[in-house]
Design brief:
mainly alpha
Length: 258
């Protein structure tokens, strides 16, 4: 969205304030969704919870192509934020189901890094898609289709290790890694505040996320308005900014106590 903002501002005709509303619509929806999706995924399970999140995310992504005003984009962003909030809770639980404790941090780092790689690849791919297919709408349509494509393989291949044909008993024992069977325990949010790990992650995100999201949503607009950088020329400066931002964000979070 941030990469296409200069082009869409001209074509759709929104103001800077209206673009701010579009950005805020996603952010607020994502925040609200984060409060709800953990409960949903725990109730229906990782397989179907993740499938629901990605399915709705794909639909919301493609709905951007139908938007004709800033209100239409804001509505699509609300759907995207609510559904995208399911990604990290479901991914964390997937890692817990398939990896022993000693390997979960590395596995989590891989999928978390993957989300940042997507942001870095976007400035390279989006101009190619528009040049090849002739419209910015294809960017959102193809993004949605990629989600559907992933979803098909997810439903075919993914089950818990105990139910999967791809895991034998030795692998299941390795994943459990001697962990005793425990019942689900309800933990209040307030009780988490006493752990230093909670504050380390929260503060790390507090200082790094505003900068990261600012670059994502306003970086292309700044380069376009101040230096006349158009869509075809955005790749190098944006990729450079995103790589440095990802590196700094990872360095900050990695310095948190375990």
């Amino acid at each position: 969205m941030g990469i296409l903002a200069p082009l869409l501002e001209t074509e759709i005709g929104w103001t800077e304030l209206q673009y701010g509303y579009i950005v805020s619509a996603f952010q607020f929806a994502y925040a609200i969704g984060t409060l709800l999706v953990g409960y949903i995924i725990d109730r229906i399970g990782t397989r179907w919870g993740f499938a629901l999140a990605v399915g709705l995310w794909s639909i919301a992504s493609m709905l951007h192509a139908a938007a004709r005003s800033w209100i239409g984009f804001a509505m699509a962003r609300v759907g995207l934020g609510l559904s995208e909030a399911g990604n990290f809770p479901a991914a964390i639980k997937t890692v817990a189901e398939w990896f022993p404790k000693k390997e979960r941090a590395f596995a989590t780092g891989l999928f978390n890094g993957g989300s940042n790689v997507g942001a870095i690849m976007a400035p390279l791919l989006i101009p190619l898609i528009i040049a090849s297919l002739g419209s910015w709408r294809w960017v959102f349509i193809l993004s949605g289709f990629l989600g559907v494509f992933w979803l098909i393989f997810w439903l075919i291949l993914y089950k818990k290790p105990q139910q999967s044909r791809f895991a034998n008993q030795a692998e299941i024992e390795y994943i459990n890694d001697g962990e005793p069977d425990v019942k689900d325990v309800n933990i209040s949010w307030v009780s988490l505040l006493k752990y230093r790990q909670t504050w380390a992650v929260a503060l790390g995100k507090f200082f790094s996320d505003p900068v990261w999201w600012f670059y994502l949503y306003w970086g292309a607009k700044f380069l376009h308005s101040k230096f006349g950088v158009d869509l075809k020329e955005l790749a190098l400066p944006l990729v450079s900014i995103y790589v440095v931002a990802v590196w700094a964000q990872g360095l900050l979070l990695c310095s948190a106590p375990s």
